Amino acid sequence: MSSAVSNNSQQNTNVAAAATKPKDLFDEWMSDGGMVATKEAKKDYFLTTDDLRYLDCTHIGYMGFGCGPPMKCYKHEDLVEKSISKHGRAGVVKKLEARRKREMNKRLREEKAEQARKKMKTISNNTADDETADVAGGGDNPVKKAVGDTQEIKKLRAGLLRMAKKKMGFEMSGAPSRWRIEVPGTSKETFAALMGRPTDVNLDSFVKTGAYHTVERYEVKTLFGTKNESQLTKDFKREGVT
Length: 242
Description:
Blueprint: H1 2-20, H2 25-31, E1 35-37, H3 38-45, H4 49-52, E2 57-60, E3 71-75, H5 76-137, H6 151-167, H7 188-194, E4 207-209, E5 212-214, H8 220-224
Helix pairs in contact: 2-5
């Protein structure tokens, strides 16, 4: 009798565990639905431009001249079918697992960088408090001034702004043109100074993606060393638009 009770309890435990077990990566990927834009179609379904060429699509979002072209959107079901036909189920699972691993590693890098930023802020605040105490108490320790841009960094910011303005323009659709500026051979010290963290010479507070350290949503005015938005514009003289 006790053996039967034990077996039943074990079966109930297995059922409960199965009921609470989350979907595997492939099932989650399959269950996502709706319309998918081109960029996400390539990224999330591991496809290329040629793969999408003959799939049915819907054009969404055209707001008129000057607003850019409409987005191409594809059905989730069509993308899943194309992806499986190209990579096979096992191939898709392998790619999903690799992507999850990359995302986990990225989160770890971001957490590590965030901890470094908090540490830097704490040290900076403590230093400011010590300097204030020295001034109030008439101490012998000289007061340190806030670290600002060196002349070299100021010139680099101005040079980057000139490069950016040369790239400004419009696509044939009327939308602003996309551009990218690269400054090869930049030292860690220079990069940290450009990003407003001159004391972080080892770049501990920055997230490294591949071979590069990156900063997202950085204030453009700070990067280019400008005081107002008018310095970030470029006027185009035209007789008319046809």
